[in-house]
Amino acid sequence: MPKHRLGVALLLPPPFDREVDTLRRACDDGALGRIPSHLTLVPPVNVRDDAMDDARRVLREAAAPTPPLTLQLGPPTTFLPANPTLYLSASGPGAQALQDLRDRVFVPPLERPLTWAFVPHVTIADEMDPARVAASVDALAGYRRTVTFDRVHLLEESKTDAGRVWHPIADASFAAPAIVGRGGIELELTVSERPDEEAAAFSAHAWERYWVDVGGPEDVDHEEPFTIVARRNGDIVGVAEGWTHGGVAYLRDLIVASELRAQGVGSRLLAAFESLAAERDATRLALRTYRDEPAYGFYRHRGWVDEASWDWKHGREFVQMRRDL
Fold first, then answer.
1. Which of 283, 280, 270 has its CA nearest to residue 243?
2. Are 150 and 48 in contact (CB under 8 A)?
3. How many C-beta atoms surround the C-beta of residue 150 within 10 A?
4. Distance in angstroms (rounded) separating the CA atoms of residues 244 and 283
5. What count of other Cβ atoms lies within 10 Å of the Cβ of residue 4?
6. How many other C-beta atoms can be found within 10 angstroms of the C-beta atom of residue 245?
7. Contact at 8 Å (CB) between 35 and 9?
8. With contact defined as beta carbons under 8 Å apart, do 299 and 240 qualify?
9. Short-list 174, 144, 173, 154, CA closest to 54
């Protein structure tokens, strides 16, 4: 039976994630880029494939009674002499709720034997030279941040060209599920940042059935996604994403590194998108943008025209644009 390498953590929200990543970079943390800045609740544990639904259920049930957690991170300290790790201590008004959350989530199939007792913290660097640890503790003694967490994440380790990388596969917000439809079709509604594997599988199957009903069996593969990546000297400088279906190519996102804008990167990405659309037999291109954004003029200058528009957030006008091939 296949197993998944999982962990449970509180991921630092912006802008604190970037701040701590900067500290990690300065301290040569070898895990930077392979795991986001976080506070661990369950260290790596192997979970059988047939227990994954149980793991996600534990996450949701543990999060539901948890209030938003406000913690003070810092000052930096260390586990020396037992372990040469530099970390930010975690304390404050949410400390007991954090411990309660950890107790609720540390159950099968996410429970595992521990080498060290649970100490809530955010790691800055592992396996540092002890002399550097002491110097870093002194240099960063004034660093403290008050951070509020509103959800907990389930992460999975995967193998990539860059090594073993951890990425979130599910999250659960600190709020009890909304129960609607009492006395009729009673539903439990939850909100998350992304669909977990179970929700994604349901959505894919339901949409497949829908498109069969609407367009017949030949219309099952209704969307062909694409991602076009522009690199310069090996570094990514722009990305275009979207999908094609039924003779229409939809450009969902096009973004260029800020320091390279107005230098032709966006034009080349757009041209590559249009070429891909033609290869997939699309006859019409579509996208949406704000009329008051520079992107609107960018597309107009390249032959795109307005197809529809409507007021959107904060009184701004949202425009659907098209270009025929």
1. 280
2. no
3. 15
4. 10
5. 19
6. 16
7. no
8. no
9. 154
Helix (H) or strand (E) holding 165: strand 163-173
Which residue has tokens 């049930």? 61
Q: How far is CA 44 from CA 11, 39, 54, 105, in A?
A: 15, 13, 16, 13
HSE value, Cβ hemisphere, 13 Å, CA-based, for 167: 9
From residue 5, give the alpha-carbon distance in Å to each of 49, 52, 109, 112, 182: 10, 11, 12, 12, 39
**Beta carbons of 250 and 262 less than 8 angstroms apart:** no
Q: What is the DSSP string of 203-234?
A: HHHHHHHHHHHHH-GGGSS--EEEEEEEEETT
Sequential pLDDT tens for the chain (325 residues):
789 999 999 999 999 999 999 999 999 999 999 999 999 999 999 999 999 999 999 999 999 999 999 999 999 999 999 999 999 999 999 999 999 999 999 999 999 999 889 999 999 999 899 999 999 999 999 999 999 999 999 999 998 776 789 999 999 999 887 777 777 777 878 888 888 888 888 887 887 787 677 666 655 556 788 899 988 888 888 999 999 988 899 999 999 988 888 888 989 999 999 999 999 999 999 999 999 889 999 999 999 999 988 887 677 888 999 999 8
